[in-house]
Amino acid sequence: MLDVQIMAEAFPNLLQGVGLTGKLAILILLFGMLVAIPLAYARNAQSAWLHGPASAYIFVIRGIPSLLQVFLVYYGLGQFDFVRSSALWPIFRDPFWCVIIALGLNSAAYTAEIIAGALRLVPKGLNEAARALGLSWFQTQRKITIPLAVRLALPAYENEIILTVKATSLASTITLLDLTGAARLEVSNTFAPYEVFLTAGAIYFCITTSLSWLLRKLEQRLSIENRAVAQKARELQVGAAAHA
Amino acid sequence: MTLAWLSGYGLQLLYGAGVTLSVAAVALLFGTAFGLSLGALKTYGSKPFRYVAEAYTAIVRGVPDLIVIYLIYFGGTVALTRLTGHYVDINGFAAGVAALAFIFAAYASDIFRSAIRQVPRGQSEAAHALGLPRSVTFFKVVLPLAWRIALPGFGNLSIILIKQTSLISVIGLEELLRASAVVSGATREPFFVYAVAALLYLAITSTASWGLHRARLRSNRGFA
């Protein structure tokens, strides 16, 4: 039923797409994080002028399909003459950068939700104590809030990383030869869709599975649970309870 | 321009939105049935069945949705052609619905499993003590209680499903995104057309989340 010969021949051709898939995923996540951090602070802000636009952005991005966002950037922006004549046109003409912009802005909305949630989970008293000790807002964020929020956000962000790796397959719809694009090209050469897409699926599966294994290791290392510090914190708690 | 929109292009987009809704509805129906069976298998099944169900979820989770769609559409065509001996053209609607239902079921089965497990044991023990058969216990006692717990996760998945229908455009089914591509080719105003499509998607998904919010409030009445 399955032609193993075709699968073996397709394998090296498909591997050539893996590099682009990885490059896209890394750049999308970096760009997404860059946008997500200010967005998350704006989302948690008291002022309606910051909170409103941030919430609206997240609502809109999460409400429409990411493939539509890719098309909107790649095909849509070319409609305007001022985009075509601007210095940025070489970027908006290039499918590579369009995917990174579209999926990066998309990832930013989901990442901002994760970060904003984690920041809200950090106990308020810690912030207030730091401020009372005379630390500035930036120092408080850098020394107290962010280190704690990172640990809280990590499990959810792991999921976002895996989803982004899978989302890079959308790049194949605008002519890029990532892993999915390479698979489509291979299918048009061999007309063996079963064999080729199964091979591509297996490669994706290996990437996402090993990635989530690695991320879980990282999470365990960072988690407060496994540290001597956590033990000390617990002893302190027990001591305090004994005194009371 | 306005006249053209009123006469044809706008209608074409609305028709596409209708196709999007029907793909989502049919995929939701099949996906829920399949996901519920998988979830029950993961909870009550014997070891080999449980492993198969777990492996199914792990594989679908690890592979992009586009690959699943391509595999079912193109792969299905080749498989049916080989089986029947003459060329079979698979219907895009059926292939799209099947692919989305398979993906939906993989994620939904985990939600159903954890919901079934959260139903207090006493409920099914009491049903057993009353002499109810196992199937009646599951459908009349456990499932109605599990639904309430599963609703938030199930709702999120349904919203994701609506957005995933846009992926079906790659196999040529004229749902909302494909219709927008066709219209933008004719009007040469791609940004405007895709923005209209985005508003239609936003209207659909926000209506769906509002409905789910209402459903959640209703399912929680009587609970603190």
Q: Can I get a quick summary?
A:
Chain A is about 80% helix and about 0% strand. Chain A is mostly helical and about 240 residues long. In chain A, α1 (about 5-45) runs antiparallel to α2 (about 50-65) and α7 (about 125-130) packs antiparallel against α8 (about 135-165).
Give a verbal description of the structure.
The complex is a heterodimer of chains A (244) and B (224). Chain A has helices at residues 4-44, 48-63, 66-76, 81-84, 89-92, 95-121, 124-132, 137-167, 179-190, 193-222, 228-243. Chain A is an all-alpha fold and 244 residues long. In chain A, helix 1 (4-44) runs antiparallel to helix 8 and helix 6 packs across helix 8. The N and C termini of chain A lie far apart (73 Å). The model of chain A is unreliable at 239-244 (pLDDT under 50). With 224 residues, chain B is mainly α. The mean pLDDT of chain B is 92. At the A-B interface, helix 2, helix 3, helix 8, helix 9 and helix 10 of A face helix 2, helix 3, helix 7 and helix 8 of B.
Low-confidence stretches of chain B: none
- Topology, number of strands of chain B: 0
Overall mean pLDDT of chain B: 92
Principal-axis shape of chain A equals flat
From the spread of the alpha carbons, the general shape of chain B counts as flat
